[in-house]
Amino acid sequence: MKTAVITAPEQVEVQEASLPEPQEGQVRLRLEGCGLCASNIPVWEGREWFTYPVAAGNPGHEGWGVVDALGAGVENVKPGDRVAALSYNSYAQYDIADADKVVKLPEALAGKPFPGEPLGCAMNIFKRSDISAGQTVTILGVGFLGALLVQLAKNAGARVIAISQREFSLEIARECGADETIQMDDHYKIIEKVKELTGEKFCERVIECTGKEWPLNLAGELTAERGKLIIAGFHQDGMRQVNIQLWNWRGIDVINAHERDPQEYIKGMRAAVKAVADGTLNPDKLYTHTYTLANIGKAFDNLKTRPDGFVKALITY
Q1: Which of 238, 256, 274 is the endpoint of a domain?
Q2: What's the CA gap between 309 and 317, in Å, rounded?
Q3: pTM for the whole thing?
Q4: Start and end of every Enoyl reductase (ER) domain (predicted)?
Q5: Burial (Cβ within 10 Å: 0-12, 13-18, ≥19) of residue 80
Q6: What is the mean pLDDT of residues 94-123?
């Protein structure tokens, strides 16, 4: 099979490798594609804690495809089943997944890309956010995750305010149903605008999707008394300073909405399958760029620089 290997920071090669063999309780997938995740940026750029070359196919973890072979004892899927998987070496034509970490895709999704892990992540974050009709929800950062959460919050009957840096992202937010959009530029102007929009009460729910310190502190400022601040951004690149006095004074519930239990991920992926199949969630317009293994280096570069029009990139095989 062909597989991508990050051999050094910002260097990737397509190499030949033997087909992996599923062990007991595992399945082999013939992958149709894999999404690119912003969490890939540190290993692409290079950090002192990474060693190179990275394992073949890693860090691809948003793969979907067709079950190709079974290990002993697998009964929940069969060869030919189309599935999304929670696996970790999916920048390749084939990958191995534990049988209890694959989710069948129904006929309603035939032919459609389905990066299950981020779609499931959005469903889990939405569930943890406890959003209901009549609430005002602000979402900071409208990339793939933020746009999905705009859709989910709007479909739940909430009034949605979307805040993002790029005008293109704000257009996407409006297409996904946002009631109000605000440029993420001036800290105090944003606070005053949201204060005006909410009759000085601010927002019952604020979801931070950027993974950056400033928007995290801005999120606290926009959260109402006894509201919930949901941290959905990927804060894995260092310490953060936050205004704990404000959080404490307003009695804010702060929720770290990343799941680490694989079975919770799988629950989210199953919920995403249902939501996409029944139209509650529509990710199709958010898949803006497609690459092959042959130009995966360009895909990583664009993931890092995010050219105008870039929301979600897929690698297809």
Answers
A1: 256
A2: 23
A3: 0.96
A4: 7-315
A5: exposed
A6: 97
160 and 209 both lie in a single domain: yes
Give the total number of structural domains in the chain: 2
Taking 90 as the threshold, does the pLDDT of residue 217 lie above it? yes
CB burial of 175-211 (b: ≥16 within 10 Å; e: otherwise) equals: ebbbbbbbebeeeeebeebbeebbeeebbbbbbbbbb
| Residue corresponding to tokens 């928007």 | 215
Give the model confidence (pLDDT) of 55-104 as tens digits: 999 999 999 999 999 999 999 999 999 999 999 999 999 999 999 999 99
Q: Are 89 and 55 contacting, i.e. CB atoms less than 8 angstroms apart?
A: yes
**Does one domain contain both 127 and 218?**
yes
- Angle of CA points 51, 52, 53, to nearest 5°: 145
By C-alpha distance, which of 107, 106, 110, 160 is closest to 138?
160
Query: Under a CB-based contact definition with an 8 Å cutoff, are residues 115 and 32 in contact?
Result: no
Residue 186: both structure tokens together:
């001036």
Helices 116-129, 144-155: axis angle to 10 degrees equals 50
Residue 111 lies in a domain: no
> Residue 121's pLDDT is what?
97
Structural domain that includes position 168: 119-256
